[in-house]
Amino acid sequence: MQTITVIIPVYNEYCSIKYNLPFIISEACKVKDIKFCFLLIDDGSTDKTATWISEYCEQRDNIELLCLSRNFGKEAAIHAGLDHARGNAVIIMDSDLQHPPVLIPKMVKLWRQGIDVVEACKSSRGRETFSNRLLATGFYRIFNLLVGMDIKNRSDYKLLDRKIVDIYCSLPERKRFFRGLIGWMGFSSAQVFFDVPVRQHGISAWSRIKLMRFSMTALTSFSSTPLHLITGLGISCFALSLVIGGIALYDKYSGQAVSGFTTVILLILLIGSLIMFGLGLIGVYIEQVFDEIKQRPTYLVDQEKSHIREDS
């Protein structure tokens, strides 16, 4: 019998996990002739999430808990889950039911037909604020423009064949963008669509600042185009200086009054702003390189809190 591991990253989900996890398990187990294992990745929760899951693991033999030593972020939690997942395929999904478990039978059916990657895509974004919707749209457009990869409305809710999991885990980089890397790999893929349901319990752990940092990491880890933009800005400023210099020389030799300090001050401010922008952008890439060359692990596991069955 084939086995599928369902990876569920959790972070301070105590208020919701005790309701949502049994429902996720019941929906997945409706698929016939498939053995499901559920691997929950606790990303350094500070509430009772890990304690409740650990107690629940004692009641069922198909649930495991992997506790990270601190909060490393969702990308690291997904990586940890994929490193420890067993079976013929893996499903990655959120615990808040905004990734509907009812899609699992359809995703498994497509995988059985030979599809390597089955992606769940959002046909609508649910009750999202206008500002978040605007930021998401802007990010997807910029990512598509710079990288040439359309990931609009794709989510982390995916089914991956074993060979995709093995390839993903073998990639050397530490700063990862899961959705982008899966799309970059290629291989056969199919999509299923869903409307994002309203979150019934708890609140999202994603703050605006976290989303902005995540977006910046995603863009800089996939494209060097912003660095080339700095060169373009430099060339543009040089061309502008030639034009203004030519005008100034013409005014001087024609006996006309040379412009005052206003133009000079504005140009200095403009060029200074462009230089600071360029330095900041270069700094982001240097940060990426700095994090990579340190070669620190993407995550650390707290073995004492984890509940992993070695014989499964």
Task: Characterise this structure.
It is found in: Membrane. It is a multi-pass membrane protein. Its main location: membrane. By secondary structure, this protein is of the alpha/beta class. It is 50% helix and 16% strand. β2, α2 and β3 form a beta-alpha-beta unit. α1 runs parallel beside α2, α5 packs parallel to α8 and α9 runs antiparallel to α10. The mean pLDDT is 81.
In short:
The protein is of the alpha/beta class. It folds into two domains: 2-207, Spore Coat Polysaccharide Biosynthesis Protein SpsA, Chain A (Alpha-Beta Complex), CATH 3.90.550; 225-294. The chain has ten helices and seven strands.
Task: Summarize the helices and strands and which ones pair or pack.
Blueprint: E1 2-10, H1 14-28, E2 34-42, H2 49-57, E3 63-67, H3 74-84, E4 89-92, H4 104-112, E5 117-124, H5 130-147, E6 154-161, H6 162-170, H7 178-185, E7 189-195, H8 208-222, H9 225-253, H10 261-294
Parallel strand pairs: 1-2, 1-4, 2-3, 5-7
Antiparallel strand pairs: 4-6, 5-6
Q: Might you state the CATH topology name of the largest domain?
A: Spore Coat Polysaccharide Biosynthesis Protein SpsA, Chain A
- Whole-number count of domains: 2
Q: Topology as H/E string? A: EHEHEHEHEHEHHEHHH
Silhouette: elongated
CATH C-level class of the largest domain is: Alpha Beta
Share in β-strands: 15-25%
- DSSP, total strands: 7
> Would you identify the CATH H-level superfamily of the largest domain?
Spore Coat Polysaccharide Biosynthesis Protein SpsA, Chain A
Helical stretch count? 10
Rg computed from alpha carbons, rounded to a whole number of angstroms: 25 Å
Spatial arrangement of strands, main beta sheet: 3-2-1-4-6-5-7
Largest sheet: 7 strands, mixed
| Low-pLDDT sequence parts | none
Mean pLDDT: 81
Question: Which class do the helix and strand fractions yield?
Answer: alpha/beta
CATH architecture of the largest domain: Alpha-Beta Complex
Query: What portion of residues is helical?
Result: 40-55%
